[in-house]
Amino acid sequence: MRRSVLVFLLIAVAILTFLLHSVSTLIALLLEDASADAIQKSELPAPNSTLLTSRPQLIPKIIHQTYINESIPQRWQAAQQSCKDLHEDYEYILWTDAMALEFIEKEYPWFTTTFKSYPYPIQRADSIRYFVLAHYGGVYIDLDDGCKRRLDPLLSYNAFVRRTIPTGISNDVMGAIPQHPFFLRVIESLQGAKRKWILPYITIMASTGPLFLSVVWKKWMGEHADLESQSQNLQNSATSSLTEWKGRVRVLMPDEYSRHTWSFFEEYKGDSWHGKDAQLIFWMGKNWMLLTAAGQKRKGYAMVAPNGSPKLVPSRASSRASPRKGGFSSWRNWTMGGKAQERYELVEQHDA
Ligand SMILES: *[C@@H]1O[C@H](CO)[C@@H](O)[C@H](O)[C@H]1NC(C)=O
Ligand SMILES: *[C@@H]1O[C@H](CO)[C@@H](O)[C@H](O)[C@H]1NC(C)=O
């Protein structure tokens, strides 16, 4: 009797440890405010400042965007044009589906099978942006982000991403030098992250989308904590022209992203899909046990999740996460199949 209690306790502890380990990054992500790597307001010259010319340029002047083909829907043409107009001296590359596949086949043949086998086109749209940034460097911009000022000041970092509130980072605007170690890590991590999570929305978020990127980012910072703190010390010291850790990823905060006249971008999406991303991550954080159970069940740990128990009732998620229409209602539609596999429908929802 005693022994069986002990065995039970041991198993319970083992399971709990395992679960905690599985979600520790997710929990750490919820607590990460990115302040250590935030691009400070004082670092950025005003839009027409003469200080601009004194800043080094590290990231190449290339703007990457993606779409199915060259026929950009009318509602995004203004956004696209605003970026082109402000950056006539930048190279502009619109990665169509055909170009993306050709590029992967030629440059990253080890990824071709995974790339082709993604069930949702948005997963290809997500992953191709990491590859082109890792390969060519430059700045990736989602088609529904318009440009309000030149990106030049951001080119003086080795890499930057955009913060989302309340947690994590987005993959809609990112910049990097070619072969930046963080983006190399990102492309290396894609195959391992390709898993099914029952719901398409979560599958996409966690395999290629902002949640995937945020998790890799959080792990990246954890692994390089010593270099991180060195870089921060350098930044704060008088001799800050010394070499900074190249792998550091700076973070563009919401004010600099889109809120003000001096911000870099303008969202053409209206009802923000990204807000919902963050809300979903929060929701996932709160329900991590359920999600982990759901995820592990696929790997055969059925004891954690007896058949049918991990019900991720989408309607509850949608009502709690957001009273607005858009991503979540469409997300519910996906679970019913139908047009679930439509190309780029997540992108289509940006301006829902
Ligand atoms: C910067 O200068 C350009 C061209 O002179 C002008 O159109 C733009 O409004 C200025 N931007 C700001 C924020 O002052
Ligand atoms: C581009 O893709 C859209 C959506 O699938 C399609 O309606 C359109 O005909 C395509 N345009 C060209 C030029 O292939």
From TrEMBL:
Domain of life where this protein originates: Eukaryota
GO biological process, any: mannosyl-inositol phosphorylceramide biosynthetic process
Subcellular location(s) of the protein: Membrane
InterPro entries found in the cross-reference section: Glycosyltransferase_domain, GlycoTrfase_DXD_sugar-bd_CS, Nucleotide-diphossugar_trans
GO cellular component: membrane
GO molecular function terms noted in the UniProt entry: mannosyltransferase activity
Gene3D superfamilies noted in UniProt: 3.90.550.20
Key words of the record: Membrane, Transferase, Transmembrane, Transmembrane helix
UniProt protein name: CSG1/SUR1-like protein
